[in-house]
């Protein structure tokens, strides 16, 4: 048997598919998932409960289609042509026209749970706990092998050398994801109740299709997040993704990276800020000390000047007193020829009226004294 090449096989199958009239203008009903855009083109998956197929809306057709109908979770009827790709041996559907076909199962369940929890008040702002500004430990509930955990760890360690990281390896999609997420949230709260300090929980995962993110729209997961005593930051998917977990959590981050940035303070910037204010405080304190020193020196100079003035004034008063004392010194009086009359009991006789005739008195003069007996006493008027 003569062999054929892989390319020949793929070209043959591709031609057969293109030539099959049953695969032209085919109306396919399914739920949209994994919608993305690249340039003018849109890519998506149409799925039902058992299978799925890749589809594309080329830019040339997008202008003819009501793109409001093309959203994740919506059921549509798409009129398509088969579009085989011989090089890779794959095929997809090229969508030519879109009509609404009712709400998809995934979207219907999303809306049911959202309306139920909103009615019960689980989205109310009054229940939102503040995210600690200086956490000692952050718990991370996500897959231990995905990109999300690496992004979170990288951001936290790059901006904070104080906060501890505690990882709870978690299934975030598929069978068992709901039990794994809920179990780890409850485990973190139990550890906190038992004395292990956990200030904040980051609950989430990286991006994916609506099916991949479905666990974070689960009613049990949402109620467990709401019941957590530890504040929860929800970080599910990419910026454009939105889950019910985001609505019940205490804070929502657009991505796991944003959640890490939200969860911790930048300790390196904080130290720089503290050092700056410390320096400014020292400068201010030194300026204040210098100003007080100048005021003190000024007051000291005024005080010394006042003391000197008081001393000078007192010195003048002493000098005046000395002059008065000198002028009133009895010895100066005696030098002028005056004398003091002293009675027998030692008292100075100030007036002649105090002298009694016949009494003996001591007469004190400059160079000595003598005793005399009073007689022939006369008052001043008798002179």
What does this structure look like?
The radius of gyration is 54 Å and the shape is rod-shaped. The protein has 10 helices and 13 strands. Helix content is 40%, strand content 23%. A hairpin with a 4-residue loop joins strand 2 and strand 3. The chain folds into 4 domains: 6-103, OB fold (Dihydrolipoamide Acetyltransferase, E2P) (Beta Barrel); 109-265, 3-Layer(aba) Sandwich (Rossmann fold); 268-328; 331-382, no CATH class. By secondary structure, it is of the alpha/beta class.
Return the average pLDDT rounded to an integer.
88
By CATH reckoning, the class of the largest domain would read: Alpha Beta
Gross CATH architecture of the largest domain: 3-Layer(aba) Sandwich
Work out the helix count: 10
């Amino acid at each position: 048997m003569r062999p054929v090449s892989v390319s020949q096989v793929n070209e043959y199958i591709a031609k057969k598919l293109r030539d099959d009239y049953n695969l032209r203008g085919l109306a396919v009903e399914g739920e949209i998932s994994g919608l993305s855009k690249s340039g003018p083109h849109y890519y998506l998956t149409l799925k039902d409960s058992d299978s799925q197929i890749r589809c594309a809306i080329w830019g040339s057709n997008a202008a003819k289609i009501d793109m409001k109908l093309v959203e994740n979770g919506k059921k549509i009827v798409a009129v398509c042509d088969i579009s085989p790709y011989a090089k890779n041996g794959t095929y997809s559907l090229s969508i030519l026209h879109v009509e609404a076909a009712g709400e998809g199962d995934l979207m219907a369940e999303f809306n049911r749970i959202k309306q139920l929890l909103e009615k019960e008040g689980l989205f109310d702002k009054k229940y939102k706990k503040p995210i600690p500004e200086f956490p000692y430990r952050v718990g991370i509930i996500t897959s231990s092998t995905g990109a999300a955990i690496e992004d979170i760890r990288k951001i936290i360690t790059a901006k904070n050398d104080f906060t501890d990281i505690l990882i709870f390896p978690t299934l975030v999609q598929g069978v068992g994801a709901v039990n794994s997420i809920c179990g780890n949230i409850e485990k973190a709260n139990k550890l906190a109740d038992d004395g292990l300090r956990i200030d904040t929980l980051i609950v989430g995962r990286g991006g994916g299709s609506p099916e991949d993110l479905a666990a974070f729209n689960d009613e049990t997961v949402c109620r467990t997040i709401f019941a957590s005593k530890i504040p929860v930051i929800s970080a599910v998917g990419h910026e454009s993704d939105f889950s019910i977990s985001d609505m019940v959590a205490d804070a929502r981050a657009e991505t796991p990276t944003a959640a890490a940035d939200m969860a911790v303070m930048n300790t390196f910037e904080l130290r720089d800020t503290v050092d700056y204010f410390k320096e400014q405080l020292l400068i201010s304190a030194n300026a204040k000390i210098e100003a007080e020193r100048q005021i003190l020196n000024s007051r000291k100079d005024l005080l010394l000047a006042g003391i000197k003035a008081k001393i000078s004034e007192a010195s003048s008063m002493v000098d005046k007193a000395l002059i008065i004392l000198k002028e009133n010194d009895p010895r100066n009086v005696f030098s002028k020829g005056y004398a003091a009359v002293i009675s027998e009991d030692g008292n100075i006789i100030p007036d002649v009226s105090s002298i009694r005739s016949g009494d003996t008195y001591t007469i004190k003069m400059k160079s000595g004294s003598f005793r005399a007996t009073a007689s022939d006493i006369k008052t001043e008027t008798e002179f």
